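Lab notebook, bench 4. The sequencing result for the construct came back, and we need a structural model before the next group meeting so we can plan mutations. Quick request posted to the team channel:

Model the 3D structure of this chain.
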Amino acid sequence: MADPVRPTVLTPYLVGDRIKLKKKHACGGLDWEVYRIGADLGLLCQTCGRRIMLSRREVARRIRRRVKTPGGE
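Done. Here's the predicted structure in token form:
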């Protein structure tokens, strides 16, 4: 249940955003691309192409940083 004193602010993500997570994937990759947005985020491993679904809260906990994309922000 959400704490009324400290509201949860989740980072907005867009399809195509690239992020770097704290732990390596089994293939050794750290970079992921957001391919689906909803209650969960769909992430695509940039090394092996594996797709996973993580809750927004789990992504917020695991993210290290956003990766700059060519021509992006």
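Helices lie at 56-62.
Will bring this to the meeting.
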